């Protein structure tokens, strides 16, 4: 018995000494507020938004450390630190963190967006980029043109009265992604799917104590696990039905009328090139979720913000309209081929994405312990790259909080800067390995929709509201849409025959 006691005493002393030594050897963790034992900074959970984290970065610097229970989190808030994690050491920072909810709802990361960096993700991304996001996939691009046309038609019918632009553009992007994913669908299917998506969205953001204190996850203290099971079985039933319909009515993959489900069914059960990926039904369901989440709210919120900013600065709307008048004229609608001749419209889109990046915090995870700027970042830390704070960083941008599209125009202060991932002061689509694979399709929708809205209509705020009175608050979630939907009054600039053609 005494031997046992001495053994434990020595073992304990050894652990304490070696922990102290290893602590001494390591560089320090990045700075941050003082932590409380065990719970760390969990009392600050409601401050983990892009705006609050930007304020904390002003106090503690571009690399900020917080401990949420047992989870290390690091926030990156300057272009220099973003370059360090997205370029210099990107292979160590390219995993994705997944909460209990995300892991469950993505069939244990059977998708691309939440898969860890590695052979499975690489094969999955190759397949999606070639088959689903490629410019060659005419169905997706055609669905954008049709959905924009339908939106213009419904606006023309409401001309002169206040219109809820936010709801309208959400419907627009939802139609685009639904059609690209499932082909033509009935209204009943659409409503069911929207309800499922909304519950998924809530669950993605729901607080779950088990994410921070792992041994509490079995207790399901806030009933999240029960909701998760219900939501996933609803999606299972919905997509199983669609997969069965596609099997009964098969289409040649890559044919003009094939949708994403047709294209992916062609790979079901077969190994792809490298042999790492054997596509299962779970993969198909999870990829569909990626596309719906990745492509709907992001694009919708950017269109809504662009119009809101132009309504707040009417001289900017006039400048875009003058350009459209010169390039397109009043006798026809905007065509895809016009977009490259509308440089000021592109400046407006860029400036919108700078001030309102639809995904304000890019979520990454470290694969192993590493050192950045002399600080230790522990393995499996959650890394949040604050694209919103970086886009408004005072040392990178002149008049950082002001909407000034001309900054990107020839001769402007920031003329040469773009968002394709080479300028770390401007990363609305991310940069490097995990950057957005849907950028081309997203930008096409955004530019075409904003061009049509500005070309087809004049816009005013309702009830005599002055431009300066338009609220510009956002809400925080996976995306950062407007806190209140934009309501505005359209009046046609083109003839009704043209708008309804
Ligand atoms: C204005 C439009 C869009 C913006 C601003 C945007 C932005 C982003 C950002 C910031 C990321 C994460 C980058 C990172 O973690 O470093 C991302 C990833 C992703 N986006 Fe987009 N996105 C847009 C449109 C789309 C569209 C239209 C789709 C699909 C149709 C899409 C699908 C995805 C997917 C699947 C990922 C995960 C990629 C991966 O983890 O490998 N996005 N997007």
UniProtKB/TrEMBL annotation:
SUPFAM superfamilies: Cytochrome P450 (SSF48264)
PROSITE patterns, per database record: CYTOCHROME_P450
UniProt xrefs under CDD domains: CYP71-like (cd11072)
GO CC terms of this entry: membrane
GO molecular function terms attached to this record: heme binding; iron ion binding; monooxygenase activity; oxidoreductase activity, acting on paired donors, with incorporation or reduction of molecular oxygen
Record's subcellular location: Membrane
Bilayer topology term: Single-pass membrane protein
Domain of life: Eukaryota
Entry keyword Transmembrane helix: yes
Keywords assigned: Heme, Iron, Membrane, Metal-binding, Monooxygenase, Oxidoreductase, Transmembrane, Transmembrane helix
Cofactor: heme
Family: Belongs to the cytochrome P450 family.
PANTHER family reported for this sequence: CYTOCHROME P450 84A1-RELATED
Name this polypeptide is given: Ferulate 5-hydroxylase
Organismal lineage: Eukaryota, Viridiplantae, Streptophyta, Embryophyta, Tracheophyta
């Amino acid at each position: 018995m005494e031997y046992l006691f001495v053994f434990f005493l020595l073992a304990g002393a050894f652990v304490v000494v070696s922990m102290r030594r290893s602590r001494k050897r390591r560089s320090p963790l990045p700075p941050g507020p003082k932590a409380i034992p065990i719970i760390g900074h969990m009392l600050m959970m409601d401050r983990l938004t892009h705006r609050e984290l930007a304020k904390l970065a002003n106090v503690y610097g571009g690399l900020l450390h917080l401990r949420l229970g047992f989870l290390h989190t690091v926030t990156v808030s300057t272009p220099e630190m973003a370059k360090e994690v997205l370029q210099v050491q990107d292979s160590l920072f390219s995993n994705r963190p997944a909460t209990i909810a995300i892991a469950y709802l993505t069939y244990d990361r059977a998708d691309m967006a939440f898969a860890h960096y590695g052979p499975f993700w690489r094969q999955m991304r190759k397949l999606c980029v070639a088959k689903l996001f490629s410019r060659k996939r005419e169905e997706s691009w055609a669905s954008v043109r049709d959905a924009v046309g339908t939106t213009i038609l419904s606006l023309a019918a409401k001309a002169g009265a206040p219109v809820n632009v936010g709801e309208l553009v959400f419907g627009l992007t939802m139609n685009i992604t639904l059609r690209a994913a499932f082909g033509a669908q009935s209204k009943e299917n659409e409503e069911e799917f929207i309800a499922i998506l909304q519950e998924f969205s809530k669950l993605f953001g729901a607080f779950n104590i088990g994410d921070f204190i792992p041994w509490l996850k079995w207790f399901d203290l806030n009933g999240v696990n029960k909701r998760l099971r219900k939501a996933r079985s609803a999606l299972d039933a919905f997509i199983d039905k669609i997969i069965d319909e596609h099997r009964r009515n098969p289409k040649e993959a890559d044919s003009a009328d094939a949708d994403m489900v047709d294209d992916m069914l062609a790979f079901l059960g077969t190994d792809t090139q490298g042999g790492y990926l054997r596509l299962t039904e779970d993969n198909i369901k999870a990829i569909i979720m990626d596309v719906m989440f990745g492509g709907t709210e992001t694009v919708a919120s950017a269109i809504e913000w662009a119009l809101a900013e132009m309504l707040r600065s009417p001289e900017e709307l006039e400048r875009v309209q003058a350009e459209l008048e010169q390039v397109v004229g009043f006798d026809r609608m905007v065509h895809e081929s016009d977009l490259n001749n509308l440089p000021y419209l592109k400046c407006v889109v860029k400036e919108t994405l700078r001030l309102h990046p639809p995904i304000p915090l890019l979520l990454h995870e470290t694969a192993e312990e590493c050192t950045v700027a002399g600080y230790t970042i522990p393995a499996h830390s959650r890394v949040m790259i604050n694209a919103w704070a970086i886009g408004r960083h005072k040392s990178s941008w002149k008049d950082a909080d002001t909407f000034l599209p001309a900054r990107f125009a020839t001769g402007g202060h920031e003329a040469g800067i773009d968002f394709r991932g080479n300028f770390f002061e401007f990363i609305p689509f991310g940069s490097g390995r995990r950057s957005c694979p849907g950028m081309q399709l997203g930008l096409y929708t955004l530019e075409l929709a904003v061009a049509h809205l500005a070309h087809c209509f004049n816009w005013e705020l309702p009830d005599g509201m002055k431009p300066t009175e338009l609220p510009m608050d956002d809400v925080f979630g996976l995306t950062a849409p407007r806190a209140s939907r934009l309501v505005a009054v359209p009046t046609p600039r083109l003839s009704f025959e043209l708008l309804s053609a």
